[in-house]
Amino acid sequence: MSGSQYSEQLSKQMVWLSGLLPYGQVVQVFERVGHQRLPPGNVWRETQTRGERLRAEAERQRAAVAPERTVLGDEREDHDLPQGVSMDGGMVHIRGEGWKEFKVGVVYDIELQPGLDPPTGETVDQPCAQQSRYTAVLGDVEQFGPALWTVAVQHDLPRAARSSVTADGAEWIWNLAADLFPDSTQIVDWYHATQHLAQAAHALFPEDETRAEEWYRHMHTPLFHGDLWKITHPLQQAGLADHARYFEHHQRRMQYQEFREEGWLIGSGPVESAIKQYKTRLTGPGMRWSRPNAERMLVLRSAVLSHEFDALWAAA
């Protein structure tokens, strides 16, 4: 990478920090910790120049492991470690375009650790996401798919004997999951399911908040056990077919007791947390991005969150 007035190591730390903190804070860290004053404009320019090369390298890697080019040979056996995928979208302000969606994907190992059980509120050993890898794309599903597949291959998910996809009820997510991970167990996020249950309860008892709340709480158990007919039947009887249809459509993705017994995450916390971490860097007070700068920063942020920045830098 030629043309920089800074050493390779200094430039690397500058760009890494820019993927972690706003540019103004990067300047403060260098002055406070490194005892070196950096003009804010120089930090911005260095990050754009180097960031473009990192973005180009990320694109090259995506092209190299595109699904149609990936061949999973027999030289390695499938591994037993269960893995998971979560995906969703967030919003970022693009100058001249307004608020636009960026799609986020997380691929992770699943391990049992003590935690709070959502249905019961008790502390039990439950599946948790570990060793997560992240990706984010400012674009449509056609652009996001290769990026998600790349981190899945890097995480060796195609060779996992067992895997799951946990997300909300958005149709684009399940279409992509069926395309990229056809053998994975599909799970609608428990919290999204309970949100729809609350909406159905208020539609069923629009003028009685107490009865709506009672019905909502009473239906948590059938929802968790997968007895969705106990939810859909009264909704159908009341002429609330649209509310019933949501649970009917996702019935196979709402077998929460079975999923929990099989060791799967039933919440999409990994991607919800990821979106917040992206937004921390890209949607701070007064932040407005050009589309190219936002695309570079999403690559930098992904590399920093995934602890893959050094490897991407070396490859670029």
Description:
- This protein is an alpha/beta fold and about 325 residues long.
- The protein has a domain of about 70 residues.
- The chain is about 50% helix and about 15% strand.
- It has 14 helices and five strands.
- A five-stranded mixed beta sheet has the order 3-2-1-4-5, sandwiched between helices.
- Helix 5 links the parallel strand 4 and strand 5.
- Helix 3 packs across helix 4, helix 6 runs antiparallel to helix 7 and helix 6 runs antiparallel to helix 10.
- The longest helix is centred in the N-terminal third of the chain and has 25 residues.
- The radius of gyration is 22 Å and the shape is elongated.
- About 35% of the residues are buried.
- The mean pLDDT is about 90.
Distance between the termini: 9 Å
Quaternary assembly: single chain
Report the major sheet.
5 strands, mixed
Please compute the radius of gyration using only Cα atoms. 22 Å
Q: Care to count the β-strands?
A: 5
| Beta-strand fraction estimate | 15-25%
Tell me, rounded to a whole number, the average pLDDT: 92
Structural class: alpha/beta
Count up the helices.
Answer: 14
Order of helices and strands: HHHEEEHEHEHHHHHHHHH
Global morphology: elongated
Which regions contain 5 or more consecutive residues with pLDDT less than 50? none
Strand order of the largest sheet: 3-2-1-4-5
